[in-house]
Amino acid sequence: MNIQADTAGLIKSAWEAAVSAPGDFAVDFYDNLFKAAPTVIDLFAGDMTEQQGRLTHTLGETVALVDKPEHLLLLLRASGVRHHHYEVKHAYFGIMRNILVDTIAVRTGEPFTPRHREAWEALFDNMATIMQHGMASTAKK
Question: How confident is residue 71, by pLDDT bands cut at 50, 70 and 90?
Fold first, then answer.
């Protein structure tokens, strides 16, 4: 996974704007996700505070590693293994992509351009592919 410097810059700037906006990024993301796909609620048990923190932390790590593909690959494969154990279905990745990018766009506001959207969609598609490989390798064991 090689990400061009200008694309990495778009990803980083949108992420920084999204997490710096008023409110909580992860709260907004999960609210949007559960409204769009109520069937995924069952994957999350109990208090969402810890899960929200993990989401923000993991996405922050991912963004920090967009210009270090070998490290990003390891992070995403490990995330795929965890998501296999959480019983995440491959079909969920599409809705997650849309909700994630839309949440970033709304929280970023006007500075979020079509180029930002393209960069985030491409990043998520690559993330999903790597995670799904990690999920599949764990399923075979």
Answer: confident
Q: Output the pLDDT for position 53.
A: 93
> Which tokens go with 90?
């491959």
- Assign 3-class secondary structure to the chain: CCCCHHHHHHHHHHHHHHHHCCCCHHHHHHHHHHHHCHHHHHHCCCCCHHHHHHHHHHHHHHHHCCCCHHHHHHHHHHHHHHHHHCCCCCCHHHHHHHHHHHHHHHHHCCCCCHHHHHHHHHHHHHHHHHHHHHHHHHHCC
Gyration radius of the chain over CA positions: 15
**Other beta carbons less than 10 A from residue 67's beta carbon:** 17
Other C-beta atoms lying within 10 Å of the C-beta of residue 44:
14
Q: How far is CA 10 from CA 23, 78, 93, 117, in A?
A: 22, 25, 22, 9
Average pLDDT, the chain: 87
